[in-house]
Write a structure and sequence with these properties.
By secondary structure, the chain is of the alpha/beta class. The chain has five helices and seven strands, in the order αβαβαββαβαββ. InterPro entries: Rhodanese-like_dom, Rhodanese-like_dom_sf.
């Protein structure tokens, strides 16, 4: 019994220790505001799919973002809004999903895009979403009225 408990404890410690090093990947690929800003500044091939509602998008969004107004991506109507954006995407470039907070809506959009055949390796969620953007540090890639 002691051996079993010791083995379980050792396995738990290994999982905790290695999870911080990316060995056990999460369900969703995330991208930071800093990395996203660099892609925009350097005109790297990237598609920014913004799912914020229209009022939030109009108040602030990233340069080059494709507005979908699909948030919270729960209904067929909201998913249809993503379909129009998917039709505009290239075949190889990374896709950054911009959500109000980088949570459930972005995850639903990510899952939906995967169900439409977009490879997981191309999909990223903006960490903390538009509301979590570090406005005190990065303003040159924001569009405001």
């Amino acid at each position: 019994m002691r051996k079993i408990i010791g083995t379980i404890a050792l396995a738990f410690v290994a999982v905790v220790a290695f999870s911080g090093f990316g060995i056990f990947g999460g369900k969703y690929n995330m991208i930071s505001a800093e990395e996203t800003a660099t892609l925009i500044r350097e005109s790297k091939p990237v598609s920014l799919v913004d799912i914020q509602v229209e009022k939030e998008f109009d108040a602030e969004h990233l340069k080059g973002a494709i507005p979908t107004y699909a948030y919270p991506v729960k209904s067929d109507e909201e998913r249809a809004k993503l379909d129009s954006a998917i039709a505009k995407l290239g075949k190889d470039e990374p896709i950054v999903i911009v959500c109000p907070r980088g949570g459930g809506g972005a995850e639903k959009a990510y899952d939906y895009m995967m169900s439409k055949g977009i490879a997981k390796e191309r999909l990223f969620i903006l960490t903390k979403g538009q509301q979590g953007w570090p406005r005190d540090k990065i303003t040159d890639v924001l569009v405001k009225p």
